[in-house]
Amino acid sequence: MAASTPSIRPYRTEDREAVIAILAGSDPWKRLGYGAAEWQRLFDPLLRDREGFTIEVDGIVVGLALLRPRFLLGEYVELLAIAPDAQGKGLGQLLLAHLEKLVFARANNLFVCVSDFNSVARRFYRRHGYQEIGPIPNLLIAGSAEILMRKTAGPVRKS
Question: Which of 62, 66, 129, 151 yields a CA-CA distance of 20 to 30 A from 110?
Answer without folding.
Answer: 62
